[in-house]
Amino acid sequence: PFRNRGYNPVMSEFTVDSEREEDGRWIGEVAELPCVLTYGVTREEAVAKAKALAFRVLADRLEHGEDIPEIHGVFAVTG
Questions:
Q1: What are phi and psi of 30, to 5 degrees?
Q2: What Rg, from alpha-carbon coordinates, does the chain have?
Q3: Tell me, what DSSP letter sits at residue 22?
Q4: HSE on the CB side for 63, CA within 13 Å?
Q5: For the chain, does the N or the C end have fewer beta carbons within 10 angstroms?
Q6: In angstroms, rounded to a whole number, what is the distance separating the alpha carbons of residues 14 and 59?
């Protein structure tokens, strides 16, 4: 059975939310993977880091025999 790890097992893509902090840094966050939050000097850097971290988290879960969501479109970027 599916182990609920805070994400939807049937989602078609991940959403990378980006937002600029008051200090000028950018945040990149994948809402479907609560542990994925990164910072960057630019929006592009924060988004790229969030995507890379999301893949690392998914790979780690696969390596440990955990279920991951079915992935179709992979990423959408907002913000």
A1: -100, 105
A2: 13
A3: T
A4: 6
A5: N
A6: 15
pTM comes to 0.72
Per-residue pLDDT of 56-79, as tens digits, reads 999 998 899 887 776 665 566 777
- Do 14 and 76 form a contact (C-beta atoms < 8 A)? yes
User: Residue 44's pLDDT is what?
Assistant: 96
| Residue 62 CB neighbour total at 10 angstroms | 11
Provide CB contacts within 8 A for 77, sequence distance 6+: 15, 16, 18, 47
The fraction of the chain above a pLDDT of 70, given in percent, is 76
Query: 12 and 76 in contact (C-beta within 8 Å)?
Result: no
The residue-averaged pLDDT of 14-22 equals 93
27, β-bridge pairs: 19, 39
CA 67 to chain centre: 16
